[in-house]
Each structure stands twice: as C-alpha cells, then as structure tokens.
Automatic annotation (TrEMBL):
Name this polypeptide is given: Flagellar assembly protein H domain protein
Organism (species): Streptococcus mitis
UniProt-annotated stretches for the region Disordered: 63-91
Superkingdom field: Bacteria
C-alpha cells in the first residue's frame, strides 16, 4: 500500500487500518500471543536492568580509580612539597 507516496492506493486502506487496529488491541490477542509478548517484554526489562546495573558498576569503578589516583598524586605532591620545604629550611 502506498500510505506515504503520492500515488493512488492499490488496495483498500480500510482493511489494512482495521487489521492494524486489531493488532494493537491487546484484548483480541490469543493466549499464545499474550504469553509471547509477555516473555519478550520480560526479556527486554531484564536486559535494561542488566544494563543499568553494569552502568552503576562501571561508575563505581571509575570513582574508585579516580579516588585512588587522586590519593596517589596527593601523596606524591605532598612529599615533593615537604622535601622542598625541608631543603628551604635547611633540614
């Protein structure tokens, strides 16, 4: 069917529209269709939860690495400043 073209319809659009409406009506689905949709939706939800968890874990690891790096750099700079101060004071 040419819904999006500037051409005349080759089929009756009412039939296609009514079929699409039936597909969107959850109550008209068979029990098998409902189970299949439910399983697909559950899998999608599980995948999204797993992705959220992975992102949280990655963020936590990144923060930990940043803190470790910051501590190491802080200690290094502190030691350098202490040595410089000690040399300046003649210790």
């Amino acid at each position: 069917m040419e819904f999006f073209g500037n051409k005349p319809f080759t089929q009756q659009p009412e039939r296609a529209i009514s079929q699409a409406d039936q597909l969107l009506d959850y109550k008209s689905w068979s029990e098998e269709d409902r189970k299949m949709f439910s399983q697909l939706r559950m899998r999608e939800e599980q995948a999204l939860l797993a992705q959220d968890y992975a992102l949280e874990q990655a963020e936590e690891r990144g923060l930990e690495r940043g803190l470790e790096r910051g501590r190491a750099e802080g200690l290094e700079k502190g030691l350098e400043r202490g040595l410089e101060r000690g040399r300046a004071e003649g210790i």
